[in-house]
Write a structure and sequence with these properties.
- This protein is an alpha+beta fold.
- It is built from 30 helices and 17 strands.
- Helix 16 (508-522) packs antiparallel against helix 17 (527-539), helix 21 runs antiparallel to helix 22 (611-625) and helix 23 (630-643) packs parallel to helix 25.
- The chain is globular.
- 53% of the residues are buried.
């Protein structure tokens, strides 16, 4: 019997298995990293016992064929079908988030507007599926995913059937999850598109009431009960608006003809309900909220200070001795949110009388605010868990939520971290809403997908790939050319594409310069646009300009993690390393996905001789990016060279040479050859020059010259090392820490040329702190 993939294994020569997501009767699903395109995927395998059943294997293949017909933002995308080592598998979009069954388990029955807002994009997904001639036949909470970025995704076509021979596209057979089957599926009469509408009605019923109708002791008994009984009215279990309750009952009609005529009709009625629940225009799309919760309305851009927000007192659950935590966290949030440009935050005293009133609409009307932050603090033993929620005060809809855990021994750090992360999430979401204007929902969805990909910094190869970050942003800006957050994100993405060597397909320098110019002109009030301008200034060696832009970015958004990370990196290089490390740690507190911050911390700690701290940071880098990522390998090979561990240098050099990492990998391989004295020196340096000849980014070239200088210094080639050191200094080098502390540069420091190069770098670096 073929052995299933193991965590850590490179499966089919392409997919690095990262974790097991789940197992079922047909097989297992894993999270894997596609090393060809640099993105995460869900990899689904078919167990061997089913492979021997031709029908199951054909059903598996059908999943790919049917799903590839459908292109819709609310339908999970299928990528590939293959076989490896006797294991049949397919790969599909990996959705980071949680499914609706988990939402129900964690939140219980949902408010009507939130439940309808979650189901609406599923109805739109079914409309696209049915238009392709497909019946899904397994719509249930576990197959509806809520992405971290807010997108709702309908997944799993494993039992879907298509039939192009008639308009009803009938299917037959008892296939599906019994608890969510339509009566005609249970009786084996065949199922058409309205069976999916019945199942979605069950999902909505469950979201509203917290339980399914027709409950019996067994799932099959539950399914059979709906053949014999009329659907129970959800209003008998929870208070509901009549229009929504009647729509649920229509979906649950025993006869298909009595249900909504199509998924389009159901979506239209849900959209009318979500729009009608708000006496005022609802707060629009948050960066972490479902796109469809308020897609019918678009807010006017809010001027600075135009968004009013209040933080309700956080509720505390736990021992009395820590009862102060709720109020402490409330005050911390108020203080931090008050520093954010574009928010008008009420003082905590204004909300004290609402300790027992949690209806956002009631509180919002009385306080005159647009959004509310609510939350709970739970303490048990030495652990504490904080849950924070953002609600639209106009509709009562929950727009965002997150959880944070930590130790009561470090409660003040936990308090700071929570406040900063919530503040940053609010800033991004409100910025998206305020600048949206007339941008259509599809454009905003493309932007949010691109932004989510950009957060996964280890996947830089996905920047320029088909369907990658830049293509998504180009698509967004075609439909919404004035959408400032997307313009700023495009500037950041093209700058990164220019920095990373080997990206083909465009003149990335020209694209980056034009994109940054556009961002400054059209989105200069965004912190992201200011950071893009700072990064471009650094590439050009204009460090005073860079400092001004960074200063402005952090004035606009004091909790913007990327700006803290970039400033921390400059501090670590330009003579303020202790400040830089603290700022990098702050950036990681704000956003733990900023993996390259670990790379900088490990490097600086190693230069200062703090080897334990360096190893801890390097281990975190490896955990975040993988052991074979060029960023991880780059630190490893340099540290080995600095320590004189030439066996490690040789091993890592060989790994970089065969790893398929493009110019970055080739550069590390040549670095190892130079440091090992492998081959004639002139020939090795010619290889190095060939590698850097295709690198147009000044900052990356400066880094390349640093690598050559230290590798040559390690083998005692002082004259040649000085040549490359001078080339780095003539470029945009500001790395004083490296000049003063890199051990293999010790033989160079007595040479007058080294002193001149250092003076040149010092003058450039000092310009940053003169601002």
């Amino acid at each position: 019997m073929p052995e299933q993939p193991r965590v850590g294994e490179l499966f089919a020569g392409r997919y690095r298995i990262e974790s097991l997501l789940g197992e079922g009767g047909m097989g297992a699903v894993y999270r894997a990293h596609d090393e060809h395109v640099g993105d995460d995927v869900a990899l689904k395998t078919l167990v061997s016992s089913f492979v021997r059943m031709g029908e199951a294997l054909e059903r598996f293949r059908r999943e790919v064929r049917l799903a590839r017909r459908i292109t819709h933002p609310n339908v999970a995308r299928i990528h590939d079908l293959g076989e490896h080592g006797g294991i049949h598998f397919l790969t599909m979009e990996y959705v980071r988030g949680r499914d609706l069954s988990r939402v129900l388990a964690e939140e219980g029955p949902l408010p009507p507007a939130r439940a309808a807002g979650l189901v609406l994009p599923v109805a739109r997904a079914l409309s696209a599926i049915h238009a392709a001639g497909v019946v899904h036949r397994d719509v249930k909470p576990a197959n509806v995913l809520v992405e971290e970025g807010g997108r709702i995704v309908l997944a799993d076509f494993g039992i879907a059937r298509g039939d192009d021979r008639n308009a009803a596209f009938q299917t037959a057979g008892l296939i599906g999850t019994p608890s969510y089957m339509a009566p005609e599926q249970v009786s084996g009469r065949g199922a058409n598109a309205r069976a999916d509408l019945y199942a979605l009605g069950l999902v909505l019923y469950e979201l509203l009431t917290g339980e399914l109708p027709f409950l019996t002791d067994t799932p099959l008994g539950t399914a059979v009960a709906r053949l014999q009984q009329p659907p129970p009215d959800p209003r008998a279990r929870v208070p509901l608006p009549d229009s929504l309750a009647e729509l649920v009952l229509r979906c649950l009609a025993r006869e298909p003809e009595a249900r909504p005529s199509s998924a389009d009709e159901l979506a239209a009625r849900l959209e009318a309900f979500t729009a009608g629940t708000a006496p005022r225009a609802p707060l629009e799309v948050m960066a972490t909220a479902p796109l469809a919760t308020a897609s019918a309305a678009r807010p006017d851009p809010a001027p600075p200070g135009g968004r009013a927000l209040a933080v309700l007192p956080f509720r505390y659950r736990g021992p009395d001795e820590h009862g102060y935590l709720g109020d402490a966290l409330t005050d911390e949030l108020v203080d931090l949110l008050s520093t954010t440009r574009g928010l008008r935050v009420l003082a905590s005293g204004a909300t004290q009388r609402f300790r027992d009133e949690r209806d956002p609409r009631t509180v919002g009307d009385e306080l005159g605010v647009d959004v509310l932050v609510d939350g709970t603090v739970q303490a048990a033993g030495c652990r504490v868990r904080v849950t924070a929620r953002l609600c639209d005060a106009r509709t009562g809809t929950q727009l965002w939520s997150d959880r944070f855990e930590g130790s009561l021994e470090d409660v003040f750090t936990l308090q700071d971290r929570l406040g900063r992360r919530v503040t940053e999430s609010l800033r991004v979401g409100l910025s998206t809403a305020s600048h949206r204007g007339d941008a259509p929902a599809e454009a905003v969805e493309s932007y949010l997908r691109a932004r989510a990909k950009m957060r996964r910094r280890a996947g830089d190869t996905s920047l320029t790939a088909a369907g990658g970050v830049i293509e998504l942003l180009d698509r967004c800006l075609e439909d919404a050319p004035d959408f400032a957050p997307a313009i700023a994100a495009h500037a950041m993405a093209t700058l990164r594409a220019w920095f990373i060597p080997g990206n083909a397909g465009r003149d990335w320098e020209t694209a980056a310069r034009r994109s940054v110019e556009r961002a400054c002109e059209q989105g200069g009030d965004l912190a992201e646009a200011r950071l893009a301008a700072a990064i471009l200034s650094v590439q050009d060696g204009r460090y005073q300009d860079a400092a001004r832009h960074l200063e402005r970015a952090l004035e606009i958004a004091p909790t913007y993690p990327d700006a803290h990370e970039y400033l921390g990196r400059l501090q670590c290089e330009a003579g303020r390393s202790r400040e830089g490390i603290e700022r990098l740690k702050l950036a990681l507190d704000l956003d733990p996905t900023l993996a390259f911050a670990h790379q900088d911390i490990a490097r600086v700690e190693h230069l200062h001789g703090n080897l334990d701290a360096s190893r801890r940071a390097q281990a975190q880098l490896e955990e975040a990016m993988g052991a074979s990522h060029p960023g991880t390998l780059g630190n490893h090979i340099r540290f080995a060279c600095w320590e004189g561990d030439m066996e490690a240098v040789e091993r890592i050099s060989e790994e970089a040479a065969r790893g398929g990492f493009g110019e970055a990998g080739r550069m590390l391989a040549v670095y190892g050859r130079i440091a090992l004295g492998d081959g004639p020196p002139d020939e090795t340096l010619r290889s190095f020059e060939r590698v850097i000849s295709g690198i147009g980014n000044p900052r990356f070239r400066s880094i390349a010259f640093q690598l050559a200088a230290e590798a040559l210094g390690a083998v005692g080639a002082t004259e040649q090392a000085l040549v490359y050191l001078e080339r780095a200094a003539d470029a945009v080098l500001i790395d004083l820490e490296w000049l003063d502390r890199c051990p293999v540069l010790a033989p160079l420091r007595s040479d007058p040329r080294f002193a001149r190069a250092r003076a040149q770098v010092l003058e450039r670096a000092s310009g940053i702190w003169g601002v």
